[in-house]
Amino acid sequence: MFVADGAGTAGRLLVARFVLRGHRVTAATTSEDMVDTLAAWGARGTVMDGLDAVSVGVTVSAARPDAIVHRMTARDAPGTDHLLAAAQAAGVPHVVVWTPGTAATHRLSDPEIAVIEAGGAVVAHHGHLDAAVTATVLAVERRTAGLLRCTHEEGPR
Questions:
Q1: 110 by DSSP, 3-state: which?
Q2: I need a surface site. Which of 25, 29, 60, 147 has the fewest CB within 10 A?
């Protein structure tokens, strides 16, 4: 399991949930200072520049994950493009991207469409962090594809 931006608030929750469910987690951050913290949370921490294709490619390849969760703030191209290219090059079969907004109100960006076309999932969420974490974990474990909606009232759907 590879979590791109595992050091933010949501990333921490994702790392914790994946570790608790027995996944081997590599979590990327832009800060060298966070690597030890990620290790304390049970993940292998690594530094990656999401806007640099080489950095993303090398980092994903070294992690050898079976899935990628994309939480980087650089969700639009080129960040998503770099992760998709790295996933393809490393043979990673599943990518899940987080995006703000619900499916009812969210208009997919070109990079998000590319994720879905590659067989991945987009988790559109608004205000319910735990529901989005749960939806993401389930999307990874079940290899769910397409647009998933999470709202503060309903949780994952």
A1: helix
A2: 147
Q: What is the CA radius of gyration of the chain?
A: 14
The two structure tokens encoding residue 3: 């979590």
The values of phi and psi at residue 132, to 5°, are -65, -40
User: For the whole prediction, is pTM greater than 0.85?
Assistant: yes
Report mean pLDDT in 10-residue bins for the chain, 157 residues.
88 93 95 93 94 95 95 68 92 88 66 88 82 91 89 50
**Nearest by Cα to 123 from 137, 114, 135, 113:** 135
Report whether the peptide linkage leading into residue 78 is cis, meaning its omega lies within 30 degrees of zero. yes
Q: Amino acid letter at 11?
A: G
